[in-house]
Write a structure and sequence with these properties.
globular, single chain
């Protein structure tokens, strides 16, 4: 129950900077492909996504964000959004430079969880983004999102800061840096 005050501790994370080996996945690697998908692809999996709304994902695409997906024999198993313009999280709003990208909304379809697909897709995104000249890659991990923190640790992502977002009655919004790493 919300009473008008929202407190969210989170990490500001830099990814893709450390050398890592390609994550192993459960299954035959050649059965998987990575590609950017469009709105019609999201409609196909819309009923299998419990965390994000289809309208919200379409709004992301309409705002210029790209959706990168991992497919198993043409079936979408996991996806994430990439923003090339800015990072918007809680009250944080950072304009990105031409060599930066912000990764957000990582999701693995429930029937494909436990196969190490999120780290694999994330790793492939680093390759794609580096090929586009985007070598500074950022994301956010909410402090209590253990699965996000875990797959980013597998990729040697680096926490840059621990921040606290405070929102009071949707009017006052601010961030506080609790720790810099």
């Amino acid at each position: 129950m919300r009473i008008g005050i929202v407190i969210t501790p989170y990490y500001w994370v830099q990814e893709g900077t450390n050398q890592i080996e390609i994550p192993e996945i459960d299954g035959i690697i050649s059965d998987y492909t990575v590609e950017f998908i469009e709105a019609e692809d999201l409609i196909k999996i819309g009923e299998n996504i419990r965390t994000y709304s289809l309208d919200g994902m379409h709004a992301y695409l309409n705002a210029g964000k790209k959706c990168l997906a991992l497919k198993y024999k043409e079936e979408i198993t996991s996806f994430m959004f990439i923003d090339f313009a800015q990072c918007n999280f809680m009250s944080m709003n950072i304009t990105l430079k031409s060599d930066e990208a912000y990764l957000t909304h990582m999701y693995t379809v429930e029937s494909f969880r436990g196969r190490n697909l999120a780290p694999y897709l994330r790793y492939k995104s680093y390759e794609i983004l580096n090929g586009m000249g985007r070598d500074k890659i950022y994301s956010v991990s909410v402090l209590f999102n253990a699965s996000a923190i875990r797959y980013k640790q597998k990729l040697n992502a680096k926490n840059i800061k621990l921040l606290l977002s405070l929102e009071i009655f949707k009017r006052i919004k601010c961030n506080f840096t609790l720790k810099t790493y």
